[in-house]
Prior knowledge:
seven-stranded parallel sheet; 414 residues; Rossmann fold; 15% strand; alpha/beta; 41% helix; 14 strands
Amino acid sequence: MSFDSLGLSRPLLRAVTESGFVEPTPVQAEVIPAILARNDVLASAKTGSGKTAAFVLPLLERLSATASQRPRKLRALVLVPTRELAAQIADAVDDYGCHLGDRALKTALTVGGVSINSQMLFLRGGADIVVATPGRLLDLQLHNALDLDDLEILVLDEADRLLSLGFAEEVARILLLVPPCQRLLFSATFPAAVKTLAAAILRKPVRIEIEAGAALADVQTNITQRAIEVDTGKRTTLLRHLLDAHGWRRVLVFVATRYAADLVADKLRRAHISAASFHGDLSQSARLQALADFKSAQTRVLVATDLSARGIDISALPAVVNYDLPRSPVDYLHRIGRTGRAGELGMAVTFLTADSDAHFALIEKRHRLVIVREVLPGFERTEAATPKLDPHGGVKGKRKSKKDKLREAAKRPS
């Protein structure tokens, strides 16, 4: 199948070609025709599946088919959980719509963390498309900076994250403001809350689910997965060793906490390696600058938490490192899927401390993976796993049994 067969106009096909797409991904092949047919859509879309283009391209096709009014009216709204994902989607709208000429659409990026005044000023002349985080959208609506009455398309992207990050109330308030229109819901997973939301807002949706097995097959084909045993205190040194050994120009490193992101980035900078942290405690301008420097390779290592890195799309990223394991096995695929995208080859390295062995085994089981443990010279693991505490107190396996206590009591002199 080619993009020509999906019903897209020449300006969009030209932009697709310039973006490096040769043929549509499975999710694009199914979603694009469904949206163009004006169906509601419920789609399962994994990381690296080409999901953003799957809804941006038909959205542009739909809206550009009719002339923009003056002032422009808001016709499409895309709701996302993070600022970075919002910026990425807004960039995709601009990139794919770059050849529309006099049919060009105006896109507004509205997210928190920056001044609302500049966004209100940008919206004075109206906008065809708004890409927003829920809180800032409600703020703008409260200030009468936008009107949802003429909305034609509503997109909820990464719906599972929207709900899990505490945006359920905001999303519900927004839905009360939205008129009847075409609604598209994309989610990597479908917990009960997402199923309930989909049932409430979608009308006879086209259900599209690209099997997890297919996504996993893509990961296994394009990404070399490694697991290296290492002591906790030697992980940064091992990271430096891998940077030298592979000569990676850019590496995305995942850590568990914001504190760890700052700490690891600082250690790398003290070793004269350009590095930046990337997490929710940073201002929006600092996060955008860190991301821009990483994309342009001015920063070699970006040390990020899961929440901040969700939705980051870095072209030709050679490697991802799991400095800490993700809390959820599902996030393992999201993490490593940042490399090996669009047909490129990539490497995903996981550092295994003694305390993380059991959790990594669970990740392997969940995704049906078997990854050989490596031991590198000079980084042999010497630590033992920390004993788990018994729920009744004491160390599991070390608490005295009732029989032991009775024997000890019997030996005491009366």
